[in-house]
Design a protein that fits this description.
Keywords: Membrane, Transmembrane, Transmembrane helix
Largest sheet: 2 strands, antiparallel
Number of helices: 8
Helix content: over 70%
InterPro entries: MFS_trans_sf
Radius of gyration: 30 Å
Structural class: mainly alpha
Distance between the termini: 41 Å
Order of helices and strands: HHHHHHEEHH
Length: 266
Amino acid sequence: MNPDIISAARKGAIYGIIISFSAAAVVGIVALLGGDFGETQGKILLTTVLFGAASITALCHLAIADRSMRIVAAAGLLASLAALVPGMVLIWRDWNLPDLDTWLQAFGVAGILAVSLAHANLLLLLAGRRRRPIRIGLAATLVAIGIVAILLILPIVTEGDIPGDDGDLYWRVFGVIAILDVLGTVVVPVLAIFVRDEPRQPVPQVSGRASLHGADDDPNALVLTVPGTIAELLQARAIASGVPVEVVAIELLRQGASVGADDADR
């Protein structure tokens, strides 16, 4: 994803948070001072709060939009948008009209997904950490987030058929997983602060003096530095051939130069 687009989206989310909650504050203050707080003012207030909440979740999703887990960020943004639409409908529609339950279900499911993915995306900022305790704790917490979301969504989509009349065990299990979710959310980031990753091993590089005559004191000699991935290939080939890595590099350069010269002659 283009970094400029991500940066602009993050700024937009921040502006959305500021504007939405500022507007909600203005509406509340005007209503309190004016003494007139009717249905329309309430709907405006709820709309601004809804936009502010959607902007907060969007900002959480965008935290990893420029990383390898960007697919999770995209899913979170879609969930936030999916929650915003039925939320707006529920605020402004006539609640006496049919299909109210459908809109409530859609808002509930999308809202749970948006919040759960926002939670997960913030924790995924630690996905690059290499320490085993952090990686295990992160994985366990992400699993707990997913289970909590599923346990909340099932009663909504089944209209209470799950867990049914005897839901005591269901909600006990939910409580245990939710506690583990909160525990991981607190412990893993704190652990990441105090348990630092070991410094990465320096990337191997190959430096050699290469010249057509093979003389170290050649004034036209070239000092060559190659990326680590190429260096590993050269080293593997040198080990297989039983020759110094500089010899392999020079031979490959000569072959490449010969091919280039032949192509130029054609």
